[in-house]
Amino acid sequence: MIPAIPWEAIELLAQASLWVAAVRIATPLVFGTLGELICERAGVLNLGIEGIMVVGALVGWFAVHQGADLWTGVLLAALAGAAFGFLQALLTVPLALSQHVAGIGVTLLATSLSYYAYRLAFPKVTTPPRIEAFKPVAVPWLSEIPVVGPALFVQTPLTYLALGAVVVVAWFLHRTPAGLALRMVGENPEAAEAQGIDVIRTRIAAVCAGSALMAVGGAFLTMSAFDAFYFGMVNGRGWICIALVVFASWNPLKALFGALLFAALDAWQLRLQQVVGGDVPYQVFLMMPYALSILALVVMSRRAASPRALMAPYVKGERR
Amino acid sequence: MRLEPRERVPAWLSLLAPACALVATFGAAAALIAAAGAPVRQGFEVMLAGALGSGFAINEMLTRATPLILTGLAVSVAFRARLWNIGAEGQLYMGALAATALGTGLVDLPAFLLLPLLVAAGALAGAAMLAWPALLKTRLGVDEVVVTLLSNFLVALLVAMLLEGPLKDPMGLGWPQSEPVVAAGELPKLVPGMRLHAGFVLALALALATWIVMSRTTLGLRIRAVGLNAVAARFAGIGVGRTILWTALLSGGLAGIAGVSEVAGLKGNLTTDLSPGFGYAGIVVATLARLHPGGVVLSAIFVAGIFVGADAMSRGVGVPSYIADVIVAAALLSMLVALLFLRYRVSRR
């Protein structure tokens, strides 16, 4: 795309601040990708993700604005996300509706309700009200490692939560009976049913839990990355998470890697704008995250082994 | 609890179920109006008057319905083949870009040649925008949902880039907008003094054409067969990949024409806020219409009525205008459930 990449562009990669930004950019994507991954592993494509992230962003921030403490805000965001996840699950699991149309409907509903509620609460504000957001916390010892230290260990608490969530989700999916049941209803619901697993309940629970994680990803935007709620601030991050799930082949650890790689490229293009700025319209750089996501899908789709019952509603006694 | 397919649908139910969906939708709207502290009854009255209360209101509603008919048709054609085109928004903007590039002075032709050229160019641009995700789907197995969703963001940035570059209006006082479309490239107005334009007639004609293609031609039969069961269609000798590509060209083309109609019929130039989500609303329109081209016209007018009416309500009783989007989303979800109960019954075994 760019004929000769100037040396400064390569040098940017050695800046510690780039990696600090990359981990920050990756955090909401890690939450969203993990959440979507849990839903898809149980066999439900959750296109409600984009709207659920908006709900999380609004609810968490608004709770704190109304006097709740930060962690209560995060909890409320997760609960609100789970509530919309329950709606998505109700429509697609027991009612077996099209996961595409229902998901788009949930996104439209969640987004418009959030915007409506925001306008109701703040009818006339021109500058969005701010809250006292999460502050970076340096982990003793570890934060002093060069480059990696500040990048990974001088972040806000929600980033540490995201990293912890990767480990917990990976352990849950691959090392616990409940995780096995969840994966089984996404691969072969008939066999799961024969084993005495309640397919409908397992799928509903998975979609609610996954949606709660997505909402926390949204809350990160208003409570950590920024300290206010803006219209359109999720800006396609949910859709990027869906691409990242495929890129990660439905594996939580690869999802973390994918989100970090993606975020590093995003942080790099932001800095690149200043180096080659003027020669190339800035929109070209802004296109990169979306173009990269599509490219990742194309590259990985050949090898992607999606859950076999993904997007296939399970109706008892009916052949697929 | 489980769902059982109905053997036949009672006539009363096929009226009652959608009616219940509408009651649920407007019940939710009433709750939202009350939450805003506005008088509910008066709110609905203002809304109804804003959509249907005068010749001007009806003209505005049909003007708003025009792009929705076209994006609704685009989505309905694609969904028939189970090609999940969530990218009508981007295809609309590609059509608008083509109309703007050719219609703002580059081509000097009389109206009877320029207008068909703009429509054809817009259709081609929209079709091309869906052709590559369709090819990625059929050739490489790439999921078209995510690709079309993400391509909307690419197109939005492309439009912003071109409006600040080669398409920028030098007289635009720095605003990112294109030069106005030349007089010969403007779609004529239908009613003097109103904004309703020939794009509406074009949309109706295309709805009829879509209905003919889908129900009276072999291509339509192939599209429906691929959507019902792609494996069986392949065994029946239908080229599935080729059919999906044709579906994509039809669908993207219809969405592209929506962009042409907005630029050449309504706005007169291209801006970054040409469409307030007409592509996404097309999914609602198509679903409410059960993917039927004739139903698309009716549901597009219904959705347009909600948008125009909610704007009036927002001005009249001070309810945030986002209520329109909530009502439309609630209508989609409740209608989905209502239509489900037309096909299935709940049994307690």
Describe this structure in words.
The complex is a heterodimer of chains A (320) and B (349). Chain A has 320 residues and is mainly alpha-helical. Chain A has a single domain, classed as ABC transporter involved in vitamin B12 uptake, BtuC, CATH 1.10.3470. Chain A has 13 helices and two strands. Chain A has a two-stranded antiparallel ribbon. The longest helix of chain A has 27 residues, at 199-225. Chain A starts with 6 loop residues before the first helix and ends in a 19-residue tail after the last helix. With 349 residues, chain B is mostly helical. Chain B has a domain at 64-282. Chain B has helices at 11-35, 40-52, 55-80, 88-103, 111-140, 144-164, 199-216, 218-228, 230-235, 240-267, 278-288, 293-317, 323-343, and strands at 2-5, 344-347. A two-stranded antiparallel sheet of chain B has the order 1-2. In chain B, helix 1 packs across helix 2, helix 4 packs across helix 10 (240-267) and helix 4 (88-103) crosses helix 11 (278-288). Chain B is globular, with a radius of gyration of 21 Å.
